[in-house]
């Protein structure tokens, strides 16, 4: 758990912009309660604002909980909702995506900017759908993996798959070969879409090379499509690999593919997310419920309007990008920005220059980004006019009040709505948030605000009773919501076990949280072994598996510890096999192995050698204990610990660390 700061329960700020629309929290709670009481009717009303090919017969199928199905009988298509609707309206020539590449010229201006109108996007998605269908023979229910950097082809492939009911799984381009292979294999993907590389901090990431390594162990992949981003002539495997421009060259520019009439509860995508133990979980999202939740939250949380320029700084490879770069904003017909690279490259004010250049009015970013801007200092912020920003939110990890206030002052001019939206891959969209577009309550720096309408959340103690106010407990969601997972791909039992068993019948999020006297939620971070590094979600399991692949490593434990900028960083404790020397070279080598296998985001911050790890009598590593010792906090109950000397070992290793 990463929160190390005090929670200012009593500090309330009323944003000046929209001040007249701010209501007190009691009034919100009363209105909210009504939406929760009749949550099916409430969500039905939201869903009816979308365009369906066929109206649903039943709002919610509850016949086999927790496998709820929303809007059963309804027929829908996410590609139709994001494209055809706008193509058939005045928005046809409205800019859908402003894409900015990372490289800059000598003056520091971006070398490449592309603008795609809704009509451009519609055409390109149709052409790609046509290719997937006619050339690759893919059909509804097939799965593909997309491993691309932040280039327009990424949303294009997602939407093209969605058009046909092809289930896609996007793998974040900061993951490496093992992580990619595991996900392709679990999804049994038939096709991989990748690129000849991607730009990150001025360097080329060799995506194709990484993909080739992964493909050595992914028998289901029959074809690989390679987008030319760098133009560096990568190795192509004859018969298997083909360049995107080549396979597209004879597809007519006006190709049209009828959007499939998909069932509301058909799968849209699988997104893998790391958990406590075992391999990553393939969270499966539906179409009807998911799009309904996105529609609601785009309005309530972001208050999107046609004149807005919207920028979510996340990567599309994570759920935030899926929901709030691709499906949500495009469904609402917004002009959105997709930026390829690092927000502080080549200078710390790259992000601010983007806001100024395109007059961004809605900004969605992360606490890690904000803390790094803070560290660079306000002189970088002052260089740019960012008065276009009228609303902003943060996401991915708890935001410390200091960072909140700094950003509120620097970019928010102490007057605009600002919040910290809590949600997770599993929830599909935002669940707890300030709602400037619906009913805004006073903001509290560091708090997430209150649950969205139609959703009941609570904080429970170990016995499943509501936790005392202002005391830590577990965050739960108490009623089904549209956008909830259909299941874990190919593992429904695990779905029940992980999310619906700690407190039977209600959804356990895995986060610690506090509810204050005013009913505000403060989500404090994970109660399990998930680590959030710069807001990126990593499981200890994947890191530990990579560690023990190094020939010298016998056993390993990874825990997340607080970091002033990144929120958390992974540190590792390693037991060496006999005959290996614990020297600096070996440390470097082992850390590199993890980077190579899992990805650069999984860089181990510190590596300690020990001869024992704290374990339970049944042999499970007690990471909770390891973390407590590492962070110098209370170790807590260690009655199940097999050998107390192991705790001293950890302590000693930390003290001796140079
Ligand atoms: C959207 C996303 C989910 C975990 C979640 C929690 C943390 C996300 C947060 C937050 C405090 C916020 N989290 N938003 N914690 N305040 N505003 O990040 O999804 O990658 O699945 O991570 O992120 O710990 O459980 P995902």
UniProtKB/TrEMBL annotation:
Quote the EC number: 6.2.1.1
Kindly state which keywords UniProt assigns to this record, in alphabetical order.
ATP-binding, Ligase, Nucleotide-binding
Specify the superkingdom.
Archaea
What's one GO BP annotation on this UniProt entry?
carbon fixation by 3-hydroxypropionate cycle
Q: Which InterPro entries match?
A: Ac_CoA_lig, ACAS_N, AMP-bd_C, AMP-bd_C_sf, AMP-binding_CS, AMP-dep_synth/lig_dom, ANL_N_sf
The AMP-dependent synthetase/ligase domain is annotated at 93-481
Gene3D superfamilies this protein is in?
Answer: 3.30.300.30, N-terminal domain of ligase-like
Can you name one GO molecular function term for this protein?
A: AMP binding
Give the range the annotation lists for the signal sequence: none
Catalytic activity as recorded in UniProt: 3-hydroxypropanoate + ATP + CoA = 3-hydroxypropanoyl-CoA + AMP + diphosphate
Enzyme class name: ligase
Is Oxidoreductase tagged as a keyword?
no
Indicate whether Cytoplasm appears among the record's keywords: no
Domain Acetyl-coenzyme A synthetase N-terminal, by residue range, is 28-80
Domain AMP-binding enzyme C-terminal per the UniProt entry, residue ranges: 542-620
Q: Which PANTHER family match?
A: ACETYL-COENZYME A SYNTHETASE
Tell me the function of this protein: Plays a role in the autotrophic CO(2) fixation pathway. Activates 3-hydroxypropionate to its CoA ester. Can also activate propionate, and to a lesser extent acrylate, acetate and butyrate.
Q: Which family does it belong to?
A: Belongs to the ATP-dependent AMP-binding enzyme family.
Name of protein: Acetate--CoA ligase
At the highest ranks, the source species' classification is:
Archaea, Thermoproteota, Thermoprotei, Sulfolobales, Sulfolobaceae
């Amino acid at each position: 758990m990463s929160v190390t700061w005090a929670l200012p329960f009593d500090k309330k700020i009323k944003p000046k912009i929209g001040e007249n629309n701010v209501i007190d929290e009691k009034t919100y709670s009363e209105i909210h309660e009504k939406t929760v009481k009749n949550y099916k009717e409430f969500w039905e009303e939201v869903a009816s604002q979308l365009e369906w090919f066929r109206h649903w017969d039943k709002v919610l199928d509850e016949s086999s909980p927790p496998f709820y199905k929303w809007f059963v009988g309804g027929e829908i298509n996410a590609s139709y909702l994001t494209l055809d609707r706008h193509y058939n309206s005045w928005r046809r020539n409205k800019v859908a995506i402003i894409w900015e590449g990372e490289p800059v010229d000598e003056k520091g201006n971006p070398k490449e900017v592309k603008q795609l109108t809704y009509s451009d996007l519609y055409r390109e998605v149709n052409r790609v759908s046509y290719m997937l269908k006619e050339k690759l023979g893919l059909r509804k229910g097939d799965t593909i993996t997309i491993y691309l950097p932040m280039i327009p082809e990424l949303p294009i492939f997602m939407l093209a798959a969605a058009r046909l009911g092809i289930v896609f799984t996007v793998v974040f381009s900061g993951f490496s070969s093992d992580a990619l292979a595991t996900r392709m294999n679990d999804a049994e993907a038939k096709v991989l879409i990748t690129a000849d590389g991607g730009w990150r901090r001025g360097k080329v990431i060799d995506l194709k090379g990484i993909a080739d390594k992964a493909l050595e162990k992914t028998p289901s992949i029959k074809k690989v499509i390679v987008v030319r981003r760098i133009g560096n002539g990568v190795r192509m495997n004859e018969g298997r690999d083909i360049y995107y421009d080549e396979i597209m060259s004879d597809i007519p520019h006006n190709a049209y593919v009828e959007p499939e009439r998909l069932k509301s509860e058909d799968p849209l995508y699988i997104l893998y997310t790391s958990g406590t133990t075992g391999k990553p979980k393939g969270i499966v999202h539906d179409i009807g419920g998911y799009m309904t939740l996105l529609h609601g939250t785009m309005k309530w949380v972001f208050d999107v309007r046609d004149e807005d320029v919207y920028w979510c700084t996340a990567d599309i490879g994570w759920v935030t990008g899926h929901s709030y770069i691709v499906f949500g904003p495009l469904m609402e017909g917004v002009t959105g920005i997709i930026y390829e690279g690092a927000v502080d490259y080549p200078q710390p004010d790259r992000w601010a220059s983007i806001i100024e250049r395109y007059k961004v009015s809605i900004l969605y970013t992360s606490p890690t980004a904000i803390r790094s801007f803070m560290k660079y200092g306000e002189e970088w912020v002052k260089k740019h006019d960012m008065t276009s920003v009228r609303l902003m939110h943060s996401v991915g990890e708890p935001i410390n009040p200091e960072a909140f206030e700094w950003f509120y002052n620097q970019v928010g001019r102490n007057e605009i709505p600002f919040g910290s939206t809590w949600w997770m891959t599993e929830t599909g969209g935002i669940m707890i948030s300030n709602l400037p577009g619906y009913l805004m309550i006073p903001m509290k720096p560091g708090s997430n605000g209150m649950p969205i309408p139609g959703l009941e959340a609570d904080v429970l103690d170990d016995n499943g009773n509501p936790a005392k106010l202002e005391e830590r407990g577990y965050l739960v969601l108490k009623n089904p919501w549209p956008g909830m997972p259909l299941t874990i791909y190919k593992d429904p039992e695990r779905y029940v076990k992980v999310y619906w068993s700690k407190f039977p019948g209600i959804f356990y999020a895995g986060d610690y949280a506090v509810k204050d006297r005013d009913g505000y939620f403060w989500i404090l971070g994970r109660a399990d072994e998930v680590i959030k590094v710069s807001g990126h979600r990593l499981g200890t399991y994947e890191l530990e598996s990579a560690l023990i692949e190094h020939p010298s490593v016998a056993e390993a434990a990874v825990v997340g510890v607080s970091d002033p900028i990144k929120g958390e960083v992974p540190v590792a404790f390693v037991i060496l096999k006999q005959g290996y020397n614990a020297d600096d070279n070996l440390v470097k080598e082992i850390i590199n192995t993890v980077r190579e296998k899992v990805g650069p985001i999984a860089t181990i911050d510190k590596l300690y050698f020990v001869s024992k790890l704290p374990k339970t009598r049944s042999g499970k590593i007690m990471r909770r204990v390891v973390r407590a010792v590492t962070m110098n906090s209370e170790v807590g109950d260690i009655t199940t610990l097999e050998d107390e000397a192991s705790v001293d070992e950890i302590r000693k290793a930390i003290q001796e660390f140079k």
